[in-house]
Design brief:
This protein is of the alpha/beta class. It folds into two domains: about 15-35 and about 325-430, Alpha-Beta Complex (Aspartate Aminotransferase, domain 1); about 60-320, Aspartate Aminotransferase, domain 2 (3-Layer(aba) Sandwich). The protein is built from 15 helices and 13 strands. It has a seven-stranded mixed sheet with strand order 2-8-7-6-5-3-4, sandwiched between helices. Helix 5 (about 110-120) packs parallel to helix 6. The structure holds pyridoxal-5'-phosphate. Pyridoxal-5'-phosphate (PLP) binds next to helix 5 and helix 6.
Length: about 450
Amino acid sequence: MNYPNSMIMLEGFNPTLDYALKLDRNDKLSRFRERFYIPENTIYVDGNSLGLLSQDAEQSLLRVLNEWKALGIRGWLEGQRPWFYFGEQIGEMAADIVGAEKGELVFSGTTTVNIHALVSTFYQPAGKRTKILADELNFPSDIYALEGQIKIKGLDPKKELLLAKSHDGRTLDEKAIVELMTDEVALVYLPSVLYASGQLLDMEYLTAEAHKRGIPIGFDCSHSAGAVPHHFSRWGVDFATFCSYKYLNGGPGCAAFIYINKKHFDKEPMLAGWFGYVKEKQFDMSLQFEHAQNAGGWQISSPGVLGSSTMEGALQITLEAGIENIRQKSLMLTTYFMQLVENTLSMPPFNFSMVTPPEAKNRGGHIALTHPEEALRINEALKARGIIPDFRQPDIIRIAPIALYNTFLEVWQVAKALREIVENKEFERFPTHRKAIS
Ligand SMILES: *Cc1c(COP(=O)(O)O)cnc(C)c1O
């Protein structure tokens, strides 16, 4: 993946407040912030975990609520965006954000359920090819799902799940992954961005290498969709899924997306359900399953229209801003933060470092900041100051300045807070154990 701005440099960088304000003055996306509800007295840098509510998303949710009120069951066909076509239409709306062609994207299910639905189709162990290649840094839910799918096929995950190792516990080497793509591998399934370190894998390269060896490949793009442009169709990715509540700002519990390359439209959805039926004939109520010949075929149940209706408004903002512009600003925000850390926080007594790869083309939308002893308590001290990052084991503070609603001033304030928390030993007030959700 070659972004024109793969080596974003901030001209005339210096760590002053004035410089932060200057970056904000030159920010072409600054107008979008006012369409979001920013929690009061808060610097919110956790949009990689749960994006914020926008007025647009609130409006589309209220519209659907009112449709239900006014139309009852007629909403399925008479809603402004008829609920019956909700999954397909939202999929079509989001297609350009991930480079999907007509019919290749549908808005349906949830990430982990979609992984099951997709892998049950694309993992077809046969002869010598029985293994799934994944990685040891993946999100646990993805690994649980892969193991379950291997067991469903009557095989042993201990033998058939091959996890690419990380040499540093933080990042993966794409070439080493490719070396594991042997003739025993039936499927490759990888994340786009590693949820902890923020490394962005080269999906185009991995797809090309898997295909050279005759192996289908799918991606979990939950940590990149809405922050990084994708070109699924051009790259030839076989399938993908991603949630909508991180950088896409759909809200908690909002549905996920399913991408199926059109060359696979005739494949059989194994977790079959009536919403995967050929649309025009679904209400024939035939007991003979005939799946839609597009990504819609992998839908299982009635769409959760009410809880996912936020997506329409949230997507409008992303489309209006433009995914390339979002990526550009996101890289500027994260580059700025990295430079602040390097220049003001990396030396004693601060001792912060970063495990996110430095090159723009190798990172997603967040920065993984580490501290040798006190990451957990520093994270708590940030929260006590109204700064919301999150913590991931064992020592990572994730900072995600979001292109649509964060400012350079906020990034500067986060760096200043980190400095003061260490200088004043503010973290010492907090316990050393972790809460249920950090
Ligand atoms: C966020 C995320 C999930 C979340 O799964 P849900 O089924 O939506 O709870 C799964 N995998 C990855 C890689 C993620 O980033």
